[in-house]
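Recall that a protein's primary structure is simply its ordered list of amino acids. Everything else, from secondary elements to tertiary packing, is in principle encoded there. The following example makes that idea concrete.
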Amino acid sequence: MLLRRNALILLPLLVVACGSTSSFTPGGSLAPASVNHPLDVQVKLDSAHSASQSITPDGGTLQAAAQDGTRYTLTIPKGALLEDLTIGMTPVSGIDGLPLSGKSLAAVQLAPEGLNLLEPATLVIVPETPIPAKELVSFAYQADGKRLHLFPLSGNPAQTTFQIQHFSGYGAGQGDSGGIQQYPPGSSESSADSQATDIFKDSWLNRGGEVTDADTAKLCNILIDWYKGSVIGDLNAAETDTSKLYAAGGQFLRWEKEASRFCESNATVQGEVEAGKKSLAKGLQHAYHEAAPKCELKLAYQWSRWAELLSLLTYAPDLAWDPNVKADIKKCQVFELEVGGSITFKGTPITFTIQKGTIPLTRTGDSTFEGSIELPGTYEGQKNCDYSGANVKWNIKVRADNSDELVHQGSIFDTDVTMTLSYAGKAKCGDISRAVSGSYPIPVSPFQLPAQDGAHHDWTSPGFQEGAVVFTIKDPKGYLEQIGKANWGGK
């Protein structure tokens, strides 16, 4: 639910533009008085005119135009998203079962369905044909037409503008809102949306947009009913059930923003804000400590960021996000270096290969990881000779350093490798068997590897004729991918 301080901001002053001729219930008849279920409708999407693009945490704007010329603009502010996300917008070409008598419709469906924004976005709809102000009915629905209910507008008097914090469907049609109001809203939040729409529309039509003290008192009572109806109950359930946390937390986020706008001096509402924050903090702690041990870092970060943005760190200081110092996150920094390849000595037929192997890298300091391994190899020399008894061994030691703690995308490992080749045994050429042995340090210059799974360095020393030893970084816990892609080092 998105309420506004002033109906001049909330609803258009004279007319609201709306546009297409669409599929409505003929005559816009009201639902029977005995109806006891929410209003579900059939939404027809104009998929040919949909639009999508990736929006970053810095925000962005997405636009779409329907076949009839109606224009849709969605503006997502900085801080609304935690990571880059593909946002979609599909115009609605018709709605079957919508109990409105007019023939104008302007609606759009947003994706991904159910997304919670941390800051409100602005959706502006600019159709071709205006609707008379008294006949304007604004609404929202879930999924593909479930639980359609009244939803308040805000914004430009020449446009249909919504302030939204949850992705579903939004639109405006022509007729009498009583047809929709005959159906129960379906949830405490939908009921709050519907009641707020009535308050603001009355203010807009009869008082030039002034929201009186009596209006504010009504709005606070609506928020209290919403809180008791679902907000606190859903939060309490989510304290120990992470599957319910995203929906419960998103609902509280929307409720708390409205409470802070209208009811800062209402002791009852502010007491509910405090109780809600404590309950949400418990749920976030539970979810974080479920995700972090499993190295589900995107989830762990999401819950930590919510705690920060909702000022919950006072109640849950252990949720403060700092991968550089958090022990449970450092445990996810498990890396490996895969090694394999071959070298041929100049001026000789002798080639040594390294059997591919993986070196576990163990943290030895704040930003250093070390490991060692002994790998078998093969010896190839003169033709028609059997060197399988040469017992080739490669002793490899690795030290990798990253002063940025691998938090930022594009960080690198400064890698120093020491390799020693040794062999001892017998070679057989025809009927002649002879002992062979040797030990050589293989000079590998320090090199850099990008901090990403699969990054590799093909090393060839000028002391050898051909061949290459390939070093490949491995990230079995997915730390580099999760941290790097989200750029979580910054705010």
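The longest strand covers residues 412-429. Confidence is low (pLDDT under 50) at residues 2-31, 486-491.
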